[in-house]
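re: that chain from earlier
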Amino acid sequence: MAGVYKLEIQESAEELKQLLRAQTTATGKERLQVLYLLQTKQAKTVQAAAELIGRNRVTVQGWLQHYRSGGIAALLMSRKQTGRPRNLPQWAEQALFKRLQEPEGFESYQAICDWLETTLGLSVPYKTVHKLVYQRLGGFA
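^ sequence. v structure.
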């Protein structure tokens, strides 16, 4: 019969409820909620569980596949976020923040660019420096 899943949930409903309360991330809560709904028979099919939490059936099936392969740990494991590396490394940003706290500071964004190049050996575009200092570090003091 279509829509019937073959999944044996190892944890009891009470254990799942406790895990759900202890979860700090929204994604973890959603994934545990699916197991809880299926374990307590509030949802009879994966489709019904997916509709109850507002997710696509295929998404929920992917979560359950993770659970089948590695249990709760695999279900709750978050993927490392990938993306473009930062133009200015964290250590350089911290050094710049310290330098901005000093009373003499900088007279312009271009002076910051020059300081980064001469002191730290980093060639950072003006636009990047402006955005970082103005939006993230609070601008000039």
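Residues 109 and 127 are 9 Å apart (CA to CA).
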